[in-house]
Amino acid sequence: MQEFRRTLKYFGCASSAAVIEMGSFTVLSTFTSLAYAPRYLIALVLSVLWNFTLNRHFTFRSNGNIPRAMLKVAAYYAVFTPLSAWFGDWATASG
């Protein structure tokens, strides 16, 4: 039962991160003249920081090596972000 609760907490945190990302991207799209890639990058960083912090505190209750964990997250997104930003630029330019 504890794992089921943890799963619900994880999906709740992930869902809230999606709301943060969509909301910040929408605000940046509405009120700035930034190109797609900077809007996407800002929204993504905000949602990742939100998700990382919330999940560490509420879902996993981890007090481990936070800098090491952040470095692992940053390494993952260092690969993922440029590819998704490039694809988003391409998709919005051709449409």
Descriptive report:
By secondary structure, the chain is mainly alpha-helical. 87% of the residues lie in helices and 0% in strands.
Task: Outline the low-pLDDT stretches.
Answer: none
Number of strands: 0
H/E order of the elements?
A: HHH
Mean pLDDT: 85
How helix-rich are the residues, as a percent range?
over 70%
Q: What is the makeup of the main sheet?
A: none
Helix-and-strand structural type: mainly alpha
CA-based gyration radius: 15 Å
State the end-to-end distance: 47 Å
Number of helices: 3
Beta-strand percentage? under 5%
Shape: elongated
Short description:
The chain has 95 residues and is mostly helical. The protein has 3 helices and no strands. The longest helix is centred in the first third of the chain and has 30 residues.
List the helices and strands and how they pair.
Elements: H1 2-31, H2 36-59, H3 66-94
Helix pairs in contact: 1-2, 2-3
